[in-house]
Known about the structure:
The chain is α/β, with parallel strands linked by helices. It has helices spanning 27-36, 43-53, 67-77, 137-141, 149-164, 190-201, 223-230, 247-253, 262-276, 294-304, 329-341, 362-367; strands at 82-90, 95-102, 107-114, 119-122, 126-128, 143-146, 177-180, 215-219, 237-241, 280-286, 309-315, 346-348. Its main location: cytoplasm.
Amino acid sequence: MPKPGELIFAAPRGAVMPPRHLADLSPAERREAVAGLGEKPFRARQLSQHYFARLTDDPAHWTDIPAAARERLAEELLPPLMTEVRQMSCDNGATRKTLWKLHDGTLVESVLMRYPDRVTMCVSSQAGCGMNCPFCATGQAGLDRNLSTAEIVHQIVAGMRALRDGEIPGGPARLSNIVFMGMGEPLANYKRVLGAVRRLTDPAPDGLGLSQRGITVSTVGLVPAIRKLTEEGLKCRLAVSLHAPDDELRDTLVPVNTRWKVREVLDAAWVYAEVSGRRVSVEYALIRDINDQAWRADLLGRLLRNRRAHVNLIPLNPTPGSKWTASRPEDERAFVAALEAHGVPVTVRDTRGQEIDGACGQLAATER
Length: 368
């Protein structure tokens, strides 16, 4: 009999992963795969150039590869991974949410947000989520399966292509930030999320050439995975979805807290901050009359003061039929003031996307 939490990193039984894709493979593995198809190993670099540097997986554009080899290489190493089901935009087109259907019919979401000084993309790492947080639309749906590395990467490739081609108002632009805060618990799909981070940050044409410092990986607090991530030597930011400073409430809001308590989660985060040199982002969804009391703000401030941390307060984007809703403005202001009194840096997240089912999992739920 497994101990509570031991199966937390496992994919659901019967989950069918997609076919092998170039983005699943390291540069060395790509050369081996190409050679296994009877092609010269250097074709792997050509394929990488097309996909990661030129953002195209259409063999018709591969004019440097013999026509006879294109279709086979495309079929074996760049198979279709997802199809767009639906797009919704708001903020005059600056925020765009996309619903994707994967090869097995599973639905996932990604969101592209353009600001005056940056462009941020929020991506999914799992179809659904097994963490069972009661206020989260994705948590309510349960876990279907992990995404492959390539399925994660392809969300970003599609977003970068849209930015390059001027599909987002404001003219062509470059992606500056990626947050693993879409559907799923990233560290419960550790191997594939780490592979995606490598593909995103490897220099072109081996990868997309993005900065590790522009990537944020979130977690509800899977302590062994935080420790493992610390050993990777990355410069990505760690975001801890805390949502309550006391174990009694967090056991309910974030059920994994029954395995790893608040202090243990934060202790692991502080080690990551020390090793990476990056400030930890503490995510806190403000829920009316649940976790927004002044005494909880004071407790949170005492836990975080003099630490390398920043609090990101999130006005809850309520899901249809849910009893959970956003805090009153006066309670939000008091919460901010209490944290600032402890010298803890705090910001209130811009509540984009409410009119397009902005909470992760809401758009997918409407298609089920």
